[in-house]
Design goal:
Strand order of the largest sheet: 1-2-3-4-6-5
Largest sheet: 6 strands, antiparallel, barrel
Strand content: 5-15%
CATH topology of the largest domain: Transferase(Phosphotransferase), domain 1
CATH class of the largest domain: Mainly Alpha
Structural class: alpha+beta
CATH architecture of the largest domain: Orthogonal Bundle
């Protein structure tokens, strides 16, 4: 469950997102441990299982961690009971069988050739060698519990099924997939209490390596030359290696259009024969040596970068498959119609950036020129003479009255001041001062508005948004070639899956022996519309009673087994028609994008010129108004000095 806390000897763990669900339990991400995950079992753990997990935790090493999602801590629930374990999170890993199909390789490993398959085979050998050296036996080997990443590194999952011993007792691996099980174990009625060995692992490992080097083919599946019903399990039990060079009277031979075992060096073919036809099998160290040597013995085809092959061959086998039998084991698009949508416009948009618009801060300096002074008119001179005369008359009158009577003198002086303040020139001076103040304030406000308009970023924001739109369009324009490739791949996948669907329709579930599926389960599947191997894809959308996660995986494993005989024959006529249609659509899309980019670019240039012209006009206004403000300020100060005198 999400947001649940579990305790281990190495820390406390809180579950977050559910990553997967299987027959045994669920796997969660951990909130505070991004590089680890937690597996929780659905059923209570037996004491034996808990002891096995604790022993695995105790035997943890960095060497094993490099090749396996190894248990690092045993966790307990709130009641203190063991309920799961912590292991490392495998980032960007996928099941090994994704390398078997040419379409999966093209989709997930588009730049990888045959040498990459050899590289992965070498790493599988190293993984087994590391585990065996630590006293572990994998036991349940299959293409589903081994993952691989794009660097070719491999890692085992479901490590809790491994076999190990504490020195006194074995913790057995009691499960297994028949098509990866050696004959001596396959002949037993069950795997219960069966001791696996490095030698039994060696058989299973050799099958994985064979499937890699033979592009998904199984070594015990082929053309049956007898009247008997010889399936893979029977062929394994009777050691009927389909590609054998040592058997004179072969009952099974390789499928049509399969990779020739003679294309590989003797060091590799001898190991395959010893692994599949002998009791004592080659150990991982021998495979490491042989695959390392093979990696050094590779040739590169001059026609395709993906066509890499053993230098034992004088001709590229992948080109021969393509030209002689129309089979593509490595798909690199050389066979498809190519696009050439290029023009001078591509050079125009290469490295395109939006030119920044720069303009200086507004210039508020005043031109160096004399400012006009206030010219006092005749009215002002008249008021000045009147003020002087009346002031003298009032003072003389007050002085004369003071001589006669002090009290009367003060009365006359007060009346003189009252009349002086009420004379018309005072009203005029106050009105004139107000006019100067208002004129100065109005001009200052005009200047502030002009400066604010100059400094406004509204049109700059519009310019930048316009530029971002062009960059987005250019990104879409640049994505067109990749979109072509994606659509080509999807079209080819559609045809590939269509062929695979028809191929799998021939395998009816009722006609085949599938481990764990008796008449009742098959009937339940039949009733749900799942009749052939092709119908198994429906399991992702429907639920069939009695078919849980475990049985779904068994069915999908059987489906992959049946698909092992599928060979993809590309319909070049249909593909090229589809590819030409895709290219035509892309050309039209490019044309429309080019037109819009040109239109947007012209609009951007016009907007830039508008911004600069507007700033130039505003600067002229600012300079003119600044001069007017300075003039008004000078007049105001001059008038204030004047009225102090008057």
């Amino acid at each position: 469950m999400i947001n649940q806390q579990y305790s281990g000897s190495k820390g406390v763990y809180i579950t977050s997102n559910l990553l997967g669900k299987g027959g045994e339990g669920e796997v969660y991400e951990l909130a505070d441990h991004p590089d680890q995950v937690l597996k929780l079992y659905s059923e209570p753990l037996s004491s034996s299982k808990a002891n096995k997990l604790q022993l695995m935790v105790d035997r943890f090493s960095e060497q094993m961690q490099a090749y396996a999602a190894w248990p690092t801590d045993l966790v307990r629930d709130k009641k203190g009971k063991p309920c799961g374990f912590v292991m490392k999170k495998l980032h960007k890993y996928m099941p090994l069988h994704m390398l078997f199909s040419p379409m999966d390789r093209k989709r997930i490993f588009p730049d990888k050739g045959y040498n990459f398959l050899v590289h992965v085979a070498r790493n599988i050998s190293s993984a087994f060698h590391t585990l065996h050296s630590a006293g572990m036996v994998v036991g349940d080997v299959n293409e589903g519990n081994l993952l691989v990443n794009k660097q070719g590194m491999v890692a085992f999952i479901d490590c809790d099924s491994f076999q190990l011993s504490d020195g006194n007792n074995y913790f057995y691996c009691e499960v297994g997939v028949p098509r990866y099980t050696p004959p001596e174990l396959l002949r037993l009625p069950s795997f219960e209490n069966v001791v696996r060995t490095a030698n039994t692992d060696a058989f299973s490992m050799a099958i994985l390596i064979f499937q890699l080097l033979f592009l998904g083919r199984h070594p015990f599946a082929g053309i049956n030359h007898t009247a008997e019903d010889i399936g893979e399990e029977t062929a394994i039990q009777r050691q009927l290696f389909a590609y054998s060079l040592r058997q004179n009277h072969k009952l099974i031979t390789p499928p049509k259009d399969s990779f020739d075992i003679n294309s590989l060096p003797n060091s590799i073919t001898d190991l395959f024969h010893d692994a599949f036809e002998s009791v004592t099998r080659p150990m991982p160290a021998q495979w490491i040596l042989a695959t390392n040597q093979l990696l050094q013995q590779m040739s590169h085809c001059s026609r395709s970068k993906l066509h890499i092959f053993p230098n034992k061959l004088t001709q590229c086998p992948w080109c021969e498959f393509k030209t002689k039998r129309n089979i593509l084991y490595f798909i690199d698009d050389l066979h498809s119609a190519q696009s050439a949508i290029h023009s001078d416009f591509d050079r125009f948009i290469h490295g395109f950036t939006v030119d920044p618009v720069y303009f200086p801060e507004p210039d508020l300096s005043i031109p160096v020129q004399p400012l006009a002074t206030i010219q006092h008119g005749g009215r002002m001179k008249k008021y000045e003479l009147q003020q002087t005369a009346i002031s003298a008359l009032l003072l003389l009158t007050a002085a004369f009255v003071f001589i006669i009577s002090t009290t009367s003198g003060f009365l006359v002086l007060g009346l003189s001041v009252f009349f002086y303040m009420g004379f018309p020139w005072k009203w005029y001076l106050q009105a004139e001062l107000k006019r100067h103040n208002e004129n100065h304030q109005n001009l200052s406000n005009q200047l502030n508005r002009a400066v604010n308009s100059y400094q406004s970023t509204q049109d700059l924001d519009q310019y930048n948004q316009h530029g971002k739109r062009i960059i987005q369009l250019i990104a879409q324009y640049g994505e067109v070639p990749r979109t072509i490739q994606v659509k080509k791949r999807l079209e080819e996948e559609r045809i590939y899956n269509q062929q695979l669907h028809h191929f799998l329709q021939q395998f009816r579930l009722q006609d085949h022996s599938i481990p764990g599926f008796g008449a009742n389960r098959k009937q339940a599947l039949y009733n749900a519309g799942i009749i052939t191997a092709s119908d198994l894809t429906k399991l992702g959308n429907i639920k069939v009673q009695g078919i849980g996660q475990k049985y779904e995986q068994m069915l999908l494993s059987w489906q992959r087994q049946m698909a092992g005989g599928f060979v993809y024959y590309p319909d070049n006529l249909q593909l090229n028609k589809a590819f030409l249609r895709i290219i035509d659509d892309a050309a039209q899309s490019k044309k429309q994008l080019e037109q819009e980019i040109r239109s947007q670019y012209n609009g951007l240039q016009q907007l830039k010129q508008h911004i600069l012209a507007k700033r130039k006009q505003l600067q002229s206004q600012i300079s003119a108004i600044s001069l007017q403000v300075a003039q008004a300020q000078a007049e105001l100060q001059s008038f204030k000095q004047l009225i102090k005198v008057i």
